[in-house]
């Protein structure tokens, strides 16, 4: 499907610049409401759940969405600031018609976005997104007054979600004796994550939990884990947990301040599951480190790569009938625990592996060493296609030939930002950096 508005993770952009404007978001709510209304039976009035992160623009966009849904005759439940995976869970648990999250995830506060979940708590498939985009091209009307949608607050949303997260942790284990630093990036899980770990027995130290509308992801969270590493060291904690602004990503830190990315955490989860159950296969992405592919094959597991983006990991997991997958960025999927990526639930799976094994993060990952990987992000104009640049293509092929089977090269356009990402894996950090820089320099010449 050729998307006009939807990217790999909903619709996202700078607030006040199309499409993240109040008028567009109201029309988006109306269009989504019309699609939902068509899917429901004539006797059932659709109801959607709206959650948001802690960006100041969330108030404005929430009001616009609510107006659009009401005009389409759809009732709304407002959850307030809640993690993205919480809205997925609550939509399913409350048997609602759909869920909406107002968030730009790991982006800075002056960005925002809208993403949708189906009644099953899964991301919308291409067919539904296409239907919403088609409805956006039609004039906006309003149902008659007797059919207008109404809105109400879902006051117990945090408590419901906390209990759900705890339910994904083994009943025969707890976190007593463990000190955990929890960094919520001044984001949507600021009032939730610490309670989950504390109620399972851990001593919890919270950082990045004072949102003011402007500080989401700023120097804290999964995209800036150095703050967590310092807090773990200064407090003598056993482990650190970092979430991003909407709490669907996870990065962890050990007692020595070493940072563990999504690839390493996925490895821990898979390794633990092999001891306690069945793992039919694992899904990564084009960016997943080669070391995981090698390790999983040595374990006798099938490994498949999806396009970058957790929606594509999810699609491939469903296609293969598997449960475990993820990205190095910290999007991790355990489909036997939740329908979507969830930073808190993923952290609990890693912590249960540590508890069950009696090992630390460093000990449980001692048998795997990631290939050095260099990633360079280059800002480009909309529509820039590196594959149309002969010199860039030639340089990529030359680097691949030099690396042979001891490394990988990946060039791709970001699905959420105007960026070209250049990634190189090699046997040494120096080689990866030099090879990536060679290709990036060719692209820089083309974009000025």
TrEMBL record:
EC number: 5.4.2.10
Domain Alpha-D-phosphohexomutase alpha/beta/alpha: 3-138, 160-257, 261-367
Needed cofactors: Mg(2+)
Post-translational modification as stated in the protein's UniProt record: Activated by phosphorylation.
UniProt key word Nucleotidyltransferase: no
Record's keyword annotation contains Isomerase: yes
Gene Ontology BP, a term: carbohydrate metabolic process
Keywords, in A-Z order: Isomerase, Magnesium, Metal-binding, Phosphoprotein
Protein family per UniProt: Belongs to the phosphohexose mutase family.
Function, in words: Catalyzes the conversion of glucosamine-6-phosphate to glucosamine-1-phosphate.
Protein name listed in UniProt: Phosphoglucosamine mutase
Source organism of the structure: Glaciimonas immobilis
């Amino acid at each position: 499907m050729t998307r006009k508005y939807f990217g790999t993770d909903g619709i996202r952009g700078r607030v006040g610049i199309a499409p993240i404007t109040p008028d567009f978001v109201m029309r988006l709510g109306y269009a989504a409401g019309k699609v939902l209304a068509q899917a429901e039976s004539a006797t059932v009035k659709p109801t959607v759940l709206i959650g948001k992160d802690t960006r100041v623009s969330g108030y404005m966009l929430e009001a616009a969405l609510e107006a659009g849904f009401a005009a389409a005759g759809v009732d709304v439940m407002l959850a307030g600031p809640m993690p993205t995976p919480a809205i997925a869970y609550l939509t399913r648990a409350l048997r609602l018609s759909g869920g909406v999250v107002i968030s730009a995830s790991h982006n800075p506060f002056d960005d925002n976005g809208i993403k949708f979940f189906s009644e099953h708590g899964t991301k919308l498939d291409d067919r539904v997104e296409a239907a919403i985009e088609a409805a956006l091209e039609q004039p906006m009307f309003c149902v008659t007054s007797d059919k207008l949608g109404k809105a109400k607050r879902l006051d117990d949303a945090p408590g419901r979600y906390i209990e759900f997260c705890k339910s994904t942790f083994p009943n025969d284990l707890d976190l007593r004796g463990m000190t955990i630093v929890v960094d919520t990036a001044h984001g949507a899980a600021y009032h939730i994550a610490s309670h989950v770990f504390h109620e399972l027995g851990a001593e919890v130290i919270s950082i990045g939990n004072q949102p003011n509308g402007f500080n989401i992801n700023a120097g804290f969270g999964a995209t800036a884990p150095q703050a967590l590493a310092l807090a773990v060291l200064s407090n003598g904690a056993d482990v650190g947990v970092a979430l991003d602004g909407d709490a669907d990503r996870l990065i962890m830190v050990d007692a020595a301040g070493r940072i563990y990315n999504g690839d390493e955490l996925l490895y821990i989860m898979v390794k633990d599951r092999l001891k306690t159950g069945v793992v039919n296969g694992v899904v990564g992405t084009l960016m997943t480190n080669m070391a995981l592919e090698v390790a999983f094959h040595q374990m006798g597991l099938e490994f498949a790569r999806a396009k970058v983006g957790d929606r594509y990991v999810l699609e491939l997991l469903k296609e293969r009938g598997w449960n475990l997958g993820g990205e190095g960025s910290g999007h991790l999927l355990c489909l036997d625990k939740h329908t979507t990526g969830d930073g808190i639930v993923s952290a609990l799976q890693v912590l249960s592996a540590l508890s069950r094994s009696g090992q630390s993060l460093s000990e449980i990952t001692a048998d795997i060493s990631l290939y050095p990987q260099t990633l360079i992000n280059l800002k480009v104009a909309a529509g820039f296609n590196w594959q149309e640049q002969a010199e860039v293509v030639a340089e990529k092929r030359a680097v691949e030939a030099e690396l042979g089977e001891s490394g990988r090269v990946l060039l791709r356009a970001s699905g959420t930002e105007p960026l070209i990402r250049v990634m190189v894996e090699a046997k040494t950090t120096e080689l990866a950096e030099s090879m990536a820089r060679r290709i990036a320099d060719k692209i820089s010449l083309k974009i000025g």
